[in-house]
Write a structure and sequence with these properties.
The complex is a heterodimer. By secondary structure, chain A is an all-alpha fold. Chain A contains seven helices and no strands. In chain A, α1 packs parallel to α3 (74-108) and α3 packs antiparallel against α6 (177-209). Chain B has a domain at 44-134 and 209-288: Rossmann fold (3-Layer(aba) Sandwich). In chain B, 44% of the residues are buried. In chain B, the strands form two sheets. Chain B has a six-stranded mixed sheet, sandwiched between helices. Chain B is globular and about 50 Å long.
């Protein structure tokens, strides 16, 4: 049976997906700013962060309104709770994209360090994870959500690799330390974006199955890390 | 008050049984997982197996199997005509007052077959008290007489006992402070919410083991509803409570377990948290979300 307020739930879902798309677009644009030394792209990302912040507030407002007025239970309640949490993660993805854009802006006016080759690859994996996690919001595909969680170690390993390479480079050429550190922080931001994708994927399992897998064996069963260097 | 000192206390339930777990009833989920090593199995008040009920040719209940735990609140939910009130009434043989009723199956309270020919229906109704949707204090009786009428009908004349039971019952019903100075006013002089609590006091005055509540708050305002819900929460320390309600939020607030009935069948029975957070059956999900129909 259709209810007169079903459209509110659809609108909530669609705003969350819209927020996800924007977070992905901003991250891609931030990486373009880095790889192409594109300052206008960086500025665009920095300016757009407010929109994601506003969407987070709007989604929270819609969720609280729905809980107050519509009394959701069962899968609807899970959808609202998960949506609120996921919007918080997406807002943080936007913050990381802004951080990448700011650092890219600084790097764009410095002599170029050709050491960021792994960063676009890391970004692609992290954004694929994010997109897959958001797909689960539409299709409630538990297996896809679990595969997102398993892929996190790929990004972690790449982050460690970047860290090792940049450390060696800084030892060899101390005059590059400031620029290399910016790249390290960018690598860390990408790694954090993958972590947010994992959070969203875990929330999607809760949405689909009503099972909270955070901090459980399910999330710890990925392959062992490739290297033992500490994260940045 | 001990059972020995109380002339009308019902003997302790024969069994107070911890029931071993038979296979789960077909069709419905059960919240009674077998006790794990080191855990105490939950005491079962009603153990009902393949219970069916007909009103003449119309079958109102279809092979309902359910275990209702002792000293917990179990909510029965479902759309109108699903058999929930019939089920509630079957728990104290109230439906026998209707003509053409026929039952099959097994319905036990603490191991005792309530439908055994050897069991007197009046005794069953004393063990299993009932409060109805519309408060129904006896109109010609005072507040005190309403509470004590069950005891007096059972021949209790001990004035001290009656005084004690009056105060205890009204205190347990959270009504004492409001009526202690007006005990001899008519029961009908009370507000709707107070009248419903008076009916609960009347039901518990004879010390039943189980309290059946048939939509007890449907005619009450939110304040009176909150008081009755608070009372239900308190009473479950001493009583097994089964409540029929159309109010989903009330079921979620007051009950430990919830059973969803549809077309005379038990569709799903689980911990209330499960029914409202993650029900197994799509019909349950649709009903609790208001999408049913």
């Amino acid at each position: 049976m259709k209810r007169f307020f079903d459209a509110e739930l659809e609108s909530f879902r669609s705003h969350l997906l819209q927020m996800g798309e924007r977070a992905i677009d901003q991250t891609r644009l931030a990486m373009k700013a880095l790889t192409a030394a594109d300052i206008p792209a960086a500025d665009k990302v920095i300016a757009a962060d407010d929109e994601l912040d506003k969407l987070e507030v709007q989604i929270d407002d819609e969720a609280i309104r729905y809980m107050t007025l519509r009394g959701p239970v069962a899968s609807e309640l899970r959808l609202i709770v998960v949506g609120m949490k996921a919007s918080h993660d997406l807002e943080r993805v936007g913050d990381e994209a802004t951080s990448i854009a700011r650092r890219s802006r600084k790097l764009a006016i410095e002599p170029r360090l050709e050491l960021y080759a792994d960063l676009p690859r890391m970004t692609n994996i992290a954004l694929e994870m994010l997109r897959d996690a958001l797909d689960c919001f539409v299709h409630e595909d538990e297996q896809k959500a679990l595969s997102v969680i398993r892929r996190d170690s790929e990004v972690d390993n790449l982050n460690r690799l970047v860290y090792r390479r940049l450390t060696s480079f800084m030892i060899e050429k101390p005059d590059t330390i400031a620029r290399a550190l910016e790249l390290m922080f960018i690598s860390k931001s990408i790694e954090r974006i993958a972590d947010h994708a994992v959070n969203i994927a875990e929330e999607m399992v809760f949405l689909s199955k009503g099972q909270d897998i955070r901090h459980s064996d399910v999330t710890k069963s990925g392959p062992p890390p490739e290297a033992s260097a500490p994260p940045v | 008050m001990s059972a020995m000192a109380d002339p009308i206390s019902v003997p302790p339930p024969a069994a107070s049984v911890s029931v071993s777990m038979p296979p789960a009833p077909a069709g419905a989920t059960t919240p009674f997982a077998p006790a794990q090593p080191g855990q105490v199995a939950e005491e079962v008040a009603f153990d009902i197996n393949r219970f069916s009920l007909w009103y003449s040719a119309h079958q109102a209940l279809h092979e309902v199997s359910i275990k209702i735990p002792s000293r917990k609140v179990t909510a029965i939910i479902g759309p109108s005509g699903c058999g929930k009130s019939t089920f509630l009434r079957a728990l104290n043989r109230m439906h026998e007052l209707s003509p053409g009723v026929r039952i099959t199956g097994d319905l036990r309270l603490y191991g005792e077959d309530l439908y055994s020919p050897a069991i007197d229906a009046t005794l069953v109704r004393r063990r299993v008290g009932m409060v109805f949707q519309k408060s129904n204090p006896f109109p010609t009786m005072t507040i005190a007489e309403n509470v004590l009428c069950g005891l007096r009908l059972n021949g209790i004349k001990d004035k001290q006992l009656l005084r004690d039971r009056l105060e205890q019952s009204l205190r347990m019903s959270a009504l004492w402070d409001e009526v202690k100075d007006h005990l001899y006013r008519p029961g009908t002089s009370l507000s709707g919410g107070q009248q419903q609590r008076l009916c609960i006091a009347r039901a518990i005055a004879v010390r039943p083991e189980v309290l059946l509540l048939d939509e007890p708050c449907s005619a009450l305002d939110p304040i009176a509803t909150a008081k009755v819900e608070e009372l239900i929460h308190e009473l479950k320390k001493d009583y097994t409570i089964v409540i029929v309600t159309h109010n989903m939020q009330q079921a979620a607030r007051v009950s430990d377990r919830t059973a969803f009935f549809y077309m005379g069948k038990l569709i799903e029975y689980a911990a209330t948290r499960t029914i409202f957070m993650n029900p197994s059956n799509p019909q349950t999900e649709a009903y609790v979300s208001g999408r049913f129909g």
